[in-house]
Give the backbone structure.
Amino acid sequence: MVLFRAFGWLLLALAVGAVVYDGLNWWSDGALRLLALGELWSRVDLASLNTFQHDLSDALWTQPLRPILKVPALAAFVIAGVIFLWLGRRVGSRTDPHFLGMSQRPRRRRSRGLS
């Protein structure tokens, strides 16, 4: 479970990086264009993308994988990160009721010595 949470936080950190990259491109180009997963993969390692494409059959590449690689990296990282954080949650833990807006008994003040 800890690995799921760690991977979820890593994906959310990558989403922040994608936001920064998209924001800087928007600022420099003047037009908002989100970075796609396929474009990110080609910028990181073009050779592995090409070998992966050539090793797969055309039907498998064109039907399920090409549309997935056109998804914006920001959305993919956020959705995957939230899913991994949800999968890695602590099942037995309960949230603090005060956090949910429920009333809490007032705490007694401790005396500080002489009163």
About this structure: The two ends are 50 Å apart (CA to CA). Residues 9 and 67 are 25 Å apart (CA to CA). The longest helix spans residues 2-29.
